[in-house]
Amino acid sequence: MPTQTLDIARANPNAPAIAGGTVSAPVRPSLIGLSRKKLAAALQEAGIAEKESRMRASQLYNWLYVRGATSFDQMTNISKAVRTTLAEQFSVDRLEIVSEQISTDGTRKWLLRLADGNEVETVFIPEPGRGTLCVSSQVGCTLTCTFCHTGTQRLVRNLTAGEIVAQVLTARDSLGEWPQPNTPSAGQQRTLTNVVMMGMGEPLYNFDHVRDALEVVSDGDGLSVSKRRITLSTSGVVPEIARCGDEMGVMLAISLHAVRDDIRDVLVPINKKYPIAELLEACRNYPGLSNARRITFEYVMLKGVNDSDADARALVKLLKGIPAKINLIPFNPWPGSAYECSDWDRIEAFAEIVNRAGYASPVRTPRGRDILAACGQLKSESEKERASVRLARARTEAQEAAAAASDA
Ligand code: SAH
Ligand code: SF4
Predict the structure, then answer these.
(1) Angle between helices 36-45 and 50-65 (to 10 degrees)
(2) In terms of pTM, does the model score above 0.90?
(3) Segment 275-291, tens digit of pLDDT
């Protein structure tokens, strides 16, 4: 998508001509991610009468989330005059796709540029009978889990609800998932069926925006991904877990990864603040928890760190009494990572103990490894570039210092 530009000379006939002719336009507020109520309020601020604003908000909502409109021009049941007003004041632009990579196993990874130039990654994982979109909640992550690539990224900000919802819209655009005109929606099969908040960032540290975004994503009159098919993964922000159940009502996944505090303190350092016992207590009290709505415990298999038979037995014991699923995740290495993935026979032995305790097929097959799209490998290109620029600068400085020393 081209960057928005404004021809100054055309906007103001008295303005002096500028060499090159264009400057960046001020960013118009996006309507993506707003609830119907907030949408109506925004329209009122733009001068649309209160009564009309409610009707327009419903129309807009339908265009954005049921039909996948990418511009006001497409919204043909809204009068041209209103469309022009809207287009002058607001945007429904998608995020800019910097790159789209498709893995040999069908996994797709998009690098998306936000309006301020920051970048996030979104991954789509097709499986038989379902398709899962892995959505980011932050640029980078303030937490520093030692096995996670995102945790090494320094630049961090929360994504807005609009930027979170826009990841879903972008994926649907790319998958060609909007209803075709004159085709009954009933017969149309969906490829994007599930959403997991497991991309970059800690979603419970961006609670309000994630909640607002998931409200839009799950709305039956819009994107319609049921809350049973939305999973939020947290490293264990204990004080927000009950609220997550109460206010979001989505499925919960916990990045457990260790059964002892001394090991978890290193792997998932937030454990020093909220140790395992407190985390599991919050899980036991998770609103809506039942055998039909279990918590998923994620456990990354790290060679020689957390993968012994004793660890497996302790894991089963620890989770006793909690309606749980266990997901063993083979560690996905990334350039410079300090860990190794457990050997396959070790993973199988560990899984066997977990299986015998009644947990079904707990090993998650890594997907999209060839495009670094697997769990914990997400990190934006711009950050990598910055890192390489930093490295180049450090090298130049070192060379200059060496040259100066040899001159002296
Ligand atoms: N911040 C949240 C959600 C994003 S991470 C959280 O930590 O839960 C999604 C999952 O990927 C988490 O379980 C995380 O621990 C796991 N993960 C991170 N890096 C990984 C890696 N290199 N290999 C395998 N899993 C990883
Ligand atoms: Fe952040 Fe989750 Fe990575 Fe930990 S595992 S650094 S919480 S994204």
Answers:
(1) 130
(2) no
(3) 999 999 999 999 999 99
